[in-house]
Amino acid sequence: ISNIRFKTKIVVIGAGQAGLSAAYHLKRSGMKIGRDFIVLDDAPGPGGAWQFRWPSLTLSTVNKIHDLPGMSFSDSLIANEPTVQANLAVPHYFDLYEQKFDLQVFRPQRVERVTMSHDRFHMDATSVRLSAAGIINATGTWQNPYIPYYPGAALFEGEQLHTRDFKSADRFIGKHVVIIGGGISAIQLLDEISRVTSTTWVTRTPPVFQNGPFDDAAGHHAVAMVENRVRNGLPPLSVVSVTGLPYSPEVQDMERRGVLNRLPMFTSITPTGVKWDDGSEIQADCLVWNTGFKSALQHLQEILPVESTGGIRMAGRLATMVESNPRIHLVGYGPSASTIGANRAGAAAAMELRKTLGLI
Ligand code: FAD
């Protein structure tokens, strides 16, 4: 860390969908970027976590990417091509967005640790030190992959990967792969890997496939349920996981290929495979955990009061405000962990934090 110090009103940490939305609304309110507020991001370029998604994830295989406020995704040149890689199209869109609204993002600047003294936040980033009166944290989940504990995991002699480590199916050729998880990522990786090698699919509960478009009512219900949890200080559940599994042509093809024969979750891991309580066992070379992510909040641990349940009690219009310290907003957290939720959260947080700081 150099001795470069910035003193500002608000620091936005993270420039994915949530951070850019917050920055847009702060700027639109008349605050000057670089002086009144600063946006930091630790990634090498624009795009938030989208720049790290696996190459075969295309615009036709993502759920849906909602527009950032003020600019349509379809205005970015390559967005209309369904076969284009999401890890190219979204960063391209975010890049154009940052340019259009002149949202300068300091990058790569990783915020390692935030402390509070004399009513101000102090943070060390990669090459700068900052002090601010308020924080909008928008660090997403990609950097905090979750793998549940199963007995024997440490003794497994094969390879264990998480969704975020996946690049291409080719590396699995000739191996037997156990795909773990019942979400969209699990299905997509199962599809790709089962085309080149043998697989076993395990999920905790039987998967439910859905014909037709995603159910908006179910989506609203899921968001309300997660919002209720965080308002009560409980850890959030994933919002995107409840949109259901599309019964797509790819899934129908997997059914025909016989790779959708799902088994219940195993109960332990052996050095050479996985095992169930009834004594049955499968030999495996790789375990691919598609078991989700948790919020990446490690840098805030000294200033975030965590409840005994492991959650953070949230308040505010869209539950972005930390109840015990309204100068901290978490966007893209809990009910706002989707592209549309992140948009709305950015707007709510920008408005409420300005109010709290007496800027309106
Ligand atoms: P991110 O895009 O993760 O942005 C966070 C940013 O913060 C990153 O640039 C990161 O580098 C930076 N950062 C993290 N920690 C620090 C730090 N300490 N200091 C500085 N910078 C930091 N949602 C949908 O709505 N539709 C979809 O189709 C969809 N598909 C998905 C597919 C996958 C495989 C996954 C994992 C998620 C998907 N989601 C989808 C959920 C998606 O992650 C969110 O909707 C949304 O993109 C998250 O935006 P965000 O701004 O909260 O986080």
UniProtKB/TrEMBL annotation:
Question: Does Transmembrane helix show up as a keyword for this record?
Answer: no
Keywords noted in UniProt: Oxidoreductase
One of this protein's Pfam families, by short name? Pyr_redox_3
Gene3D superfamilies in alphabetical order: FAD/NAD(P)-binding domain (3.50.50.60)
Q: Which domain of life is it from?
A: Bacteria
Keyword Ubl conjugation assigned to the entry: answer is: no
Record protein name field: Oxidoreductase
